[in-house]
Fold this sequence. Notes:
Layout: H1 3-45
Amino acid sequence: MSSEHMLMQVGGSRWKFLQWRRFLMATVEVSTCVIPCCTSLLSVEG
Length: 46
């Protein structure tokens, strides 16, 4: 395996990690926004 190929492998996995982390952060942000709204709606209806 050439060094260039190794660098591409490492860069690709790093990019995937960054994308995955961004996705996780977005999911957390959405959850923190949605969950209070749902609970307040449920408490109002209940």
